[in-house]
Design goal:
Elements (H helix, E strand, L loop, with lengths): L2 E6 L7 H11 L4 E4 L8 E5 L2 E5 L13 E4 L4 E2 L1 H11 L5 E4 L3 E2 L2 H9 L1 H7 L6 H9 L16 E2 L1 H10 L4 E4 L23 H8 L8 E7 L1 E4 L11 H7 L13 E4 L2 H11 L3 E5 L1 H4 L14 H14 L3 E5 L7 E3 L3
Bound molecules: guanosine-5'-triphosphate, inosinic acid (IMP) and magnesium ion.
Guanosine-5'-triphosphate binds next to helix 1, strand 3 and helix 10.
Amino acid sequence: MSVDIVVGGFWGDEGKGKIISHLVNKRQATIVARGGVGPNAGHTIVVDGVEYKLRMIPSGIGGKNVQKLLIGPGVLVNPDVFLDEVEKTEMKGKTFVDHQCGIIEESHRKIDTTDPHLVKKVGTTGSGSGPANEERVRRKLKLAKEIPKLKPFLTDVPGEIHRGLANKESILLEGTQATYLSLFHGTYPFVTTKDVTASSICADVGIGPTVVTDVTLVLKAYVTRVGEGLLPGELTEEETIKRGWTEYGTVTKRLRRAAPFNAELAKRSIQLNSATKIALTKLDILFPTDQGKTSFDDLSEEAKLWISDREKEIDMRFTFIGTGPADIEIIDREG
Ligand code: GTP
Ligand code: IMP
Ligand code: MG
């Protein structure tokens, strides 16, 4: 029995979905619950060779023991995006949203794609998440329980999680966005519209911090950011392409800005989330000869040296190391 939270350490897109895909089978998790803002997130996961791009459904779809994929009451739901994903993943019967999830409507998307402050200054994802959260704060936003087409999917998410805990089942809590996109701890005003650190992920799904076993902070081997705002050590577009660090946003298709791994940011993120474990992703992008490796001993000497230098800088060990996009392309040093 365990409760694991997975959160991002930089500005999102660290590969949280892929780490969830690994942990869901390792922990034999029965419940995966999603916290965070809403469909502004995009997780790309590769399960049994098939790629899925998920904005609403938790990334635990490949879990052999999974019984429930839940979206907590703190998360915004876009019903069309949700229903489309339920169909594509064939997860009907396992996927549920809390009665109290806030609902994103076309009017919110319209503001998020036309308001000059949001579009030009902040550079939002245009998903309607910010305007919907604004309306929730004014206590005017519709909730999931008011939407007829969501009726078959409604549940009490905190109730489901606490039933799982009472049965001593393993539970995964999936964070979205990341530490420096937090409304409170991030690089304001170039942030998302809620706190998204580990404590808020707990609140989003309805548990307190005392039942958490581990907080796994996901750090990518380099740092990326979409939208505006500070990015220390930012490379030019030309240099980003030259290094092979080009990435495009899952939701916005925008080119992600890139910079080298930043130990200072990582250390602060470890504190803000009280991380107990670190997952490093995309080692294979820095060291292509190491792609797909599953054992630390098999890594190239250069990669091992890079890892031990970074571990010294941040004073924590990389428990999980991603060596490719597929769920099985990972080195697991947890024992
Ligand atoms: P947000 O909640 O939107 O922040 O997303 P995320 O953290 O789940 O990450 P996202 O899926 O947007 O981006 C990560 C990308 O890297 C995906 O395309 C993954 O398939 C890929 N990926 C994850 N881990 C690895 C890895 O170790 N190596 C390689 N090459 N790709 C990886
Ligand atoms: P919003 O959350 O759509 O309002 O966007 C605010 C800022 O957060 C923008 O810079 C977005 O690019 C960024 N952002 C929001 N969600 C994600 C995510 O899941 N991954 C990466 N960036 C995100
Ligand atoms: Mg993403």
